[in-house]
Every structure is written in structure tokens, then in C-alpha cells.
What does this fold into?
Amino acid sequence: MSTHPATGPTADGGVLAVVRRGWRALAWYVTGVLGESDYQRYVTHLRRVHPDAAVPTVREYWRERYAAQDANPGARCC
It folds into this structure.
């Protein structure tokens, strides 16, 4: 019988913990690519820099953002 502690991916909670960590990393990446964290980042900025300003709803935020992109396309190809 060995008295050495187990090592590897199952030593700290099992394979399920590794899968959860991987899933969270993938979800973080996908939400970042799709821009889902942009609204929360904007709200945080707005509350910190402009505490008296009204916070737009998610729908209002995206409507304004897309309108701004359409008005000033910048380096977009289309």
C-alpha cells in the first residue's frame, strides 16, 4: 500500500473539476467574443465615471452601439 498522496487531474476534486474549469474557460471566451461582457463593463464604467448618469437597459445599450457603428463604420469592410 502506498502512502504517497495522489497527483494529477483527479487529486483536487476529480475529473469533474477539470471539466468544470474547462467549461468556464470556454464560456468566458465565447461571451467575450460575442460581446456579452461589453454591457456589464460599460455599466461599471458609467457608474464609476458618471455616477449621476442614467444606466441604459441592455436593449438600449445595444441599439445605441449598433447605431454608432452604422454612423461611423471605421475600418469595417462592409
